[in-house]
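Here is one chain, start to finish.
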Amino acid sequence: HNPSLQAFVFPSLTTTPWNSFSVNIYDNLQLSSVSFPNLMNVSAGLTLEDNAMLIAADVSALVDVGSIYVARNRLSAIDLPSLVVAHGPVEVYDEYALASFTAPLLEYIGGALHVENCDKMYVLEFALLEYIDGDLNIYSNDALQKVDFPNVTYIDFDLDVYSNGNLETVLLVAVTHIDDDIWVYENPNLQLLNLTSLTYVDDEIQVDDTPATFDFVAPNFAAEDLDNCDGSDGCSYPL
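Its structure:
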């Protein structure tokens, strides 16, 4: 709530001193840049929220973070080139200018991964991510065409993909376990959901409002293995 603050810079901060340390930057109407270029860990959470003029955030040295929450700024890119572990959720909401969200070294998310209303982003890809200890939610990203997490093996709650108007491809080729539901709906251009390695879904699969050419690839999974699958109740898509 600093109406005249334009820049927030801590060039020498490298680490945080206690387990509950967080960085929370929100409701600063003129803030345009945030910079922690040498900060390697945030033990609790990193929050950037409701900074209407924020166009740049440098946390390029960040390796380890408790959680990430980014919402309603004016960021065109979220680049986390050093991040390896997020111990809690990673959530990005209502970033209408966001064209790029990258974390090429990220291996583990200890909560949900949620990306919603990022209308200029065409591709969402985390090449080294292996484990999502929560939901994977991809909602209402109008420009998004491709989701590709080639090394994720485990999703510890729901896989939810809906209302992405131009999404064509979802590649989760290494996923073996989804510990709750698969819900895929209102993706009118979706051509492929590739779950080649899938062997286990805990509850139900619902796939609706996809084109006739849509292909659900899960050769190692049988619908009768679902806890709740009797016709349209539990499994709306023929596997």
